[in-house]
Amino acid sequence: MSHSDGAHPAGTPGTPTGIADLRPLARAREQKAWYWYDWANSAYVTTVGTVLFAPYIIAIAKEAAVDNRVSLLGISVAPGSLPSYLVTVSTIISAIVLPLMGPVADRTADKKRLLAAFAWLGALSGSLIFFATGSNWQIGALGFFLANIFLGASLVVNDSILPLISDEDDRDRVSSRGWAWGYLGGGLLLAVNLAVVTLHDTFGLSEGDAARLSMLSACLWWAAFTFIPFLRLQDHEPVPLAEADGGGGGIFAQSFGQLGKTLRELPRYPVALNFLLAYLFFNDGIQTVIASASTYGSEELEFGQSVLIGTILLVQFVAFGGALVFGRLARRFGSKRTILGGLVVWMLIVTAALFLPVKGLVPFLLLGVAIGVVLGGTQALARSYFSLLIPRGKEAEYFSFYHAMDRGTSWFGTLVFGLVFQLTDSYRPAIFALIIFFVLGGLLLLRVDTERGIRDAGNEVPAVI
């Protein structure tokens, strides 16, 4: 814009007023600030949730075990099962709590403060794992359990901010960049932490102490980088209560009233419901492949720890590029077609896994690259695609259902994997059996009428869908 543009009389219809429209710049700044939360929490998810917590807590619990059993809330549990039970219980509680929290987030303009509060409570809870030493596994279990709950709550608020800082045409790009930053941040800290754990003798640390320090570093990283969105995101006024119709009373009374109303209204948005059902299946398939990959690599393909660690890092860094590539593909072909293409690749991945040779390093690494390419992309686009089907003013509410579906049903895939292994005594058919989740998810997604869903929700239809 040239300076001469400011010569028009102020207030003349259809002419500039002499003040440049700075909203696109402000929006770009907010988007950059928002990316940092994916960067912040992914370090915890990868270092603690994916890699270090389970083996560490199992080792600590074994120290305390009597007849190879510890007591978890009065239930006798094998130390080896402890992480799985903690994930399961925190997942079920999240699925119940998150939909109650969504309307509260929608009723506040200060979402960034809510996001930061959940993030910092999560990081503080996760830091308790540092104090799990000797045979004191309980404090580590409590810290991990609470951190999982707060992480889920923070992700609902974070995802609900996406529609507030991007318009419909830009959403796939913004969501994909967030996921890409997450994989990059998570991968960088994980690389450092795995070096510390692997070379612990060099640093004068025991392996346990190296693991504890690494998990603490992930919690500190999560807390520290959350300051960027906390300081740089803007407040966004919620849709007025008259429109959202949450009823009278305080914010919590209004929020519970709003949740009941939304549950009754859900059938009015059948496209959003259809997508949630499709997401339930294909996301469960994705999560189970990721959760089972290291077991498959060690037990079936006989790879050592160093190969598995290298592959985890490879997937992280390839997923950074994969998320950006999928964002570009969505701009050209639309997010639905791009997600469907990703699901076809997932089907090829689990089929290829059936035939991988024992100790075949190159094929295993190629499979890791393929997983990295589609991993970030499919999940990033699922988030932005769903955001188009959400009525304005109810972003957190609908994303709380989205995350509740994600968490509340995430045991289907692991159950199928476990049952097939039990029946066949081989991980090959077990991992191939997961193809059913991608097939069902893809078929359900094919039935989703994108344009109708966007119009039902009262949103603008992007140029490319």
From TrEMBL:
Subcellular location: Cell membrane
Coiled-coil parts of chain: none
Keyword check for Membrane: yes
Transmembrane regions: 39-62, 82-102, 114-133, 139-157, 178-199, 211-231, 271-291, 303-326, 338-358, 364-386, 398-421, 427-446
UniProt keyword annotations, A-Z: Membrane, Transmembrane, Transmembrane helix, Transport
Topological type in the membrane: Multi-pass membrane protein
PROSITE patterns with a match to the protein in the record: MFS (PS50850)
Major facilitator superfamily (MFS) profile domain location: 271-465
Domain of life, source organism: Bacteria
InterPro entries membership: Atg22-like (IPR024671), ATG22/LtaA_families (IPR050495), MFS_dom (IPR020846), MFS_trans_sf (IPR036259)
Pfam families with a match to the protein in the record: ATG22
Official protein name in the record: MFS transporter
Species: Nocardioides zeicaulis
